[in-house]
Write a structure and sequence with these properties.
261 residues; alpha/beta; four-stranded antiparallel sheet; 6 helices
């Protein structure tokens, strides 16, 4: 199944690209400023969830992938009890969830919102998020910015190296990707990911997963947020405050337009 990292979750944290680390201090600082409870939708392996708890936040994490949550649970076991007590993890669908708590900060990091393939799914997710947001709280969403009008030019059947790094064991790991297809009607991108562990004895072990992500242009995502009752308060192109028009990402910080009745 696409987007669940069922075969590669254990290697997900090996990513050493800037986009995989630059958002962590951004969300930690937002949580510190806002105070109160935090909800991360599509929390995955706890890449951001755990640093939030380490920084003192009471944080809930929701993810659809059991494989990703297993990795997070294994990391949480190694944490001090005080930090572990601030972590609340659960498997669930970010288009349809209901929690007893309300949150000062809710966010969907690292383009995970783009796993939702229709406007209906996207609006359901945004509506759930809004209903769980405290008055005065913030909802933050990140998606990548298309470099130009998407089309067949994006497709590339050749493997390309995304990154190379080393595991804690010292073994080298690489990730390659193949851009398989672009559906411009549904705005879906299809990608295959190949993780390879290069063992010290010279053998190579390969693990494959697939991604299917929906791309958004700026007006698309702004319209969806407004339709769900959000007001966009800030826009950035990168996590250092780069203006939205200059960076490679869309980072949209929102409040909601009307108080819940």
């Amino acid at each position: 199944m696409e987007n669940l990292y069922l075969n590669t979750a254990a290697l997900y944290d090996a990513d050493n690209r800037a986009v995989f680390t630059a958002d962590i201090p951004f969300y930690v600082e937002r949580a510190r400023k806002l105070g109160g409870r935090v909800l991360e939708l599509a929390c995955g392996t706890g890449r951001i969830t755990i640093p939030l708890a380490e920084a003192g936040a009471e944080v809930w994490g929701l993810d659809y992938s059991p494989a990703m949550l297993e990795v997070m649970a294994a990391k949480a076991v190694e944490l001090p009890a005080a930090i572990r007590s601030r972590l609340h993890m659960g498997q669930g669908d970010m288009t349809d969830f209901s929690l007893e708590e309300r949150f000062n900060l809710i966010f969907i990091p690292f383009r995970s919102f783009q796993s939702l393939e229709t406007d209906e799914q996207a609006l359901n997710c945004l509506t759930c998020a809004r209903e769980h947001l405290e008055p005065g709280g913030q909802f933050i969403i990140n998606i990548f910015k298309p470099i130009r009008q998407m089309g067949d030019w994006w497709v590339d059947p050749e493997e390309h190296l995304d990154y190379e790094t080393k595991l804690a064991s010292g073994e080298r790991v690489t990730r390659h990707s193949i851009k398989k297809a672009c559906d411009t009607e549904k705005r879906l991108l299809y990608t295959d990911l190949y993780y390879r562990i290069h063992r010290q004895d010279g053998t190579v072990e390969e693990f494959k997963d697939s991604l299917r992500l929906r791309y958004f242009y700026g007006d698309d995502i702004r319209s969806l947020l407004h339709s769900a009752g959000f007001v966009i308060q800030e826009e950035y192109g990168w996590y250092d405050g780069t203006p939205a028009g200059e960076g490679p990402e869309y980072i949209l910080v929102c409040g909601y337009a009307q108080q819940r009745v």
